[in-house]
Amino acid sequence: MILPIVAYGDPVLRKKGIDIPQDYPNLKQIVADMYETMYNAYGVGLAAPQVGLAIRLFVIDTKPFSEDEDLTKEEQAQLADFRKAFINPVIVKEEGEEWGFNEGCLSIPEVREDVYRHERITIEYYDEEFNKHTDVYDGLIARVIQHEYDHIEGILFTDRLSPLKKRLIQKRLQNIMEGKTRPDYKMKFVAKKGR
């Protein structure tokens, strides 16, 4: 089922997600709905707070990035095959130089800015069968994980911008909160002014 994506300004996006138990109600269905919602909005990642749930869960599918012709064949293949749910994740290490990449967010439509993140991470998490993993990721996969991980920590990519950049996008953020922005996917806005 396609769920509405929570828009910028909703308090759930600022909550730190709580760990979920193995018997969390309807977990497999929630994960399936999150994938369907993400694909419907042409996203590469979606965190539970973005569908109104303040829990430590996100899903990723980096296949759309695999079509970038600037990448090596190996990088393209790695991105094409990366599809995973992360339950109760903890980033235990961030390494390497920070590098910039133009990021967007399904909860903040029509806003894109360069964000700097570490090139490599080590993350502990549970998969959908509640098997524990500790994995190391780098490049675009690490970046998408860090972006989604921020969501379950109550952090948005706009928080990582300079004060000047934040001021420059303030009106667009206000339009999102007021429901004046109209992406081509289902959204839940905080205020519904200007309708």
TrEMBL record:
<comment type="function">
    <text>Removes the formyl group from the N-terminal Met of newly synthesized proteins. Requires at least a dipeptide for an efficient rate of reaction. N-terminal L-methionine is a prerequisite for activity but the enzyme has broad specificity at other positions.</text>
</comment>
<protein>
    <recommendedName>
        <fullName>Peptide deformylase</fullName>
        <ecNumber>3.5.1.88</ecNumber>
    </recommendedName>
</protein>
<keyword id="KW-0408">Iron</keyword>
<feature type="binding site">
    <location>
        <position position="105"/>
    </location>
    <ligand>
        <name>Fe cation</name>
    </ligand>
</feature>
<dbReference type="InterPro" id="IPR023635">
    <property type="entry name" value="Peptide_deformylase"/>
</dbReference>
<feature type="binding site">
    <location>
        <position position="147"/>
    </location>
    <ligand>
        <name>Fe cation</name>
    </ligand>
</feature>
<feature type="active site">
    <location>
        <position position="148"/>
    </location>
</feature>
<keyword id="KW-0648">Protein biosynthesis</keyword>
<dbReference type="GO" id="GO:0046872">
    <property type="term" value="F:metal ion binding"/>
</dbReference>
<dbReference type="Pfam" id="PF01327">
    <property type="entry name" value="Pep_deformylase"/>
</dbReference>
<keyword id="KW-0378">Hydrolase</keyword>
<feature type="binding site">
    <location>
        <position position="151"/>
    </location>
    <ligand>
        <name>Fe cation</name>
    </ligand>
</feature>
<comment type="similarity">
    <text>Belongs to the polypeptide deformylase family.</text>
</comment>
<dbReference type="GO" id="GO:0006412">
    <property type="term" value="P:translation"/>
</dbReference>
<keyword id="KW-0479">Metal-binding</keyword>
<dbReference type="InterPro" id="IPR036821">
    <property type="entry name" value="Peptide_deformylase_sf"/>
</dbReference>
<dbReference type="GO" id="GO:0042586">
    <property type="term" value="F:peptide deformylase activity"/>
</dbReference>
